[in-house]
UniProtKB/TrEMBL annotation:
Coiled coil: none annotated. It comes from the Bacteria. Residues 8-364 form the AMP-dependent synthetase/ligase domain. This is Amino acid adenylation domain-containing protein. PANTHER family: FATTY ACID SYNTHASE, NONRIBOSOMAL PEPTIDE SYNTHETASE. InterPro entries: AA_adenyl_dom, AMP-bd_C_sf, AMP-dep_synth/lig_dom, ANL_N_sf.
Length: 507
């Protein structure tokens, strides 16, 4: 198999009348999804060459998933643009993609005006006016396709303050999803409850586990995550069996005592990633759903979702470290020290590195950052072996399982999102009154230090023009002068002491 559409067509042949995807308002069967996507793909093939990026300016829905697969039928790859992201960020993504066309739906006209897109706008409704399937055209595209062709792009936060577009091939997704669904026993009997935004790689597991197995995916309305009772009602009513959520989403139910209202008893597979899972919250889940399988997943977008996993069978107490576990089959995961020597001793930290087909194609239109992160394996001088250097420090515990330690640089995981503090600092320093800024992630909060005469509320107001809400610092601390190390860098150790001892003001 060299194309993910094989998943879709196989499931459509086996389960034609079964619901593949459903949102709050509509659903679509596997047979309907194939037909609709082929029709969209036939129209797109008239306008786009294979391997072209096609930005999609829509929120997640049944319509959006139909468009995704339509783009893939046309031999192209999709990049979802979150309609609620700031104009500056969306403009950068569009400029990086170097496109003069995007696709949206008529319901998003108001949001579209925000970005003042000068190129051509294609509406999904227009594509479906002439929904004639051109099987000959689609076959010619398929015959020329490779498993290394791009499937999707996801823009992550960048250490330079600039988002980077991770491009992922069909082969990477196929190899990962095959072992992912087998490892955790995901089958056609499962109902997957989607939480993750579709410009966040956790969603890839939801979408492609669904079509690979003939399962059903229920798209949970975003607003339900602010109301635990509505969220639990949805899980119960839609008979959700499997959730693959960010840790912060998992904790919403347990911290707000949702289980005291109702327990979604159909849940039997509970997987989480994106941040360190608080043991207290995990234990609440295990108390109410003791027979479910709990899995701690680890991995950045650059290695196609996850590279390690740990099925939790042990009991943990607050303060214990939950391992990130062992590598998935067909993924090589290892640790390197500062001298590029492999670290194998228990307890010794090293940078976590990954090789294998899960390693993605690099950053779109950004060769400099690609060359920095995707490098030759220093342990292999004999042939080409590309590895991705995660920037995460990890170690082996006494049982030989990998455990996450910290970031090697200043990239963090916050609210389920991977964030570069440098991007926040750059946005702060773009505000006229701020001379310099430095951000530190401590106690699960982003602390922003700044030198400048400006009210904190004004800073927040300014940052909302360039950053998504999840990147806005939680605490702002004004300094007269930054402490400096002997190397001329801001002394972050000294700033951390201020967090511990200073009376800070929250925004």
């Amino acid at each position: 198999m060299f194309n993910i559409l094989t998943y879709l067509e196989k499931s459509a042949a086996q389960y034609p009348d079964k619901i593949a995807f459903a949102d709050k308002d509509k659903s679509i069967t596997y047979e309907e999804l194939v037909k609709r996507s082929k029709g969209i793909g036939s129209q797109l093939a008239k306008q786009f060459s294979p391997r072209t990026p096609i930005p999609v300016f829509m929120e997640k829905s049944v319509d959006t998933i139909s468009l995704f697969f339509g783009i893939v039928y046309a031999g192209c790859f999709y990049v979802l643009l979150d309609t609620k992201q700031p104009k500056t960020r969306l403009d950068h993504i569009l400029n990086t993609l170097n496109v003069n066309t995007l696709i949206t739906s008529m319901g998003y006209d108001r949001d579209l005006k925000k970005i003042e897109f000068a190129g051509k706008v294609i509406y999904l409704e227009e594509l479906e006016e002439d929904n004639v399937i051109n099987e000959n055209s689609l076959m010619k595209i398929k015959e020329q396709a490779l498993d290394t062709d791009p499937l999707y792009g996801i823009f992550t936060s960048g250490s330079t303050g600039i988002p980077k577009g991770v491009i992922v091939a069909h082969r990477s997704v196929i190899d990962f999803i095959d072992v992912f669904t087998e490892t955790f026993g995901i089958t056609s009997e499962d109902v997957i409850g989607n939480q993750a935004p579709w410009d966040f790689d956790v969603s890839v597991k939801d979408i492609y586990s669904t079509i690979a197995t003939g399962a059903t995916m229920q798209i949970i309305p975003k607003q339900f995550f602010s109301f635990p009772t509505k969220l639990i009602d949805f899980l119960c009513e839609r008979e959700v069996t499997t959730i693959i959520w960010a840790v912060s989403a998992i904790c919403i139910i347990s911290t707000l005592k949702g289980f005291e209202y109702k327990v979604p008893t159909k849940l039997n597979k509970i997987m989480f990633s994106g941040e360190v899972m608080p043991v207290k919250q995990l234990n609440i889940w295990r108390e109410y759903l003791p027979d479910a399988m709990y899995v701690n997943l680890y991995g950045p977008t650059e290695i196609t979702c996850n590279c390690t996993y740990h099925i939790i069978k042990e009991d943990y107490e607050p303060g214990d470290v939950i391992p990130i576990g062992k590598p998935f089959p067909n993924e090589r995961v290892f640790l390197l020290d500062d001298e590029n020597k492999e670290v194998k001793e228990p307890g010794k930290k090293g940078e976590l590195c990954v090789s294998g087909t899960a390693v993605t194609l690099g950053y779109y239109n950004n060769s400099e950052q690609t060359q920095k992160a995707f490098t030759q394996n220093p342990l292999n001088p004999y042939y080409l072996e590309t590895i991705y250097r995660t920037g995460d420090l990890a170690y082996y515990n006494e049982n030989g399982l990998l455990c996450f330690a910290s970031r090697k640089d200043f990239q963090i995981k916050h609210m389920g999102h991977r964030i570069e503090l440098g991007e926040i600092e750059g946005s702060m320093e773009s505000i006229h009154e701020i001379k310099r800024a430095c951000c530190i992630f401590e106690n699960n909060k982003i602390h922003a230090f700044y030198d400048g005469a400006i009210d904190k509320k004004e800073i927040v107001r300014g940052l909302k023009k360039t950053l998504p809400v999840f990147m806005i610092p939680n605490v702002f601390i004004q300094v007269e002068q930054f402490p400096i190390t002997k190397n001329g860098k801001i002394d972050r150790t000294e700033l951390k002491k201020k967090i511990e001892g200073e009376d800070v003001v929250q925004a």
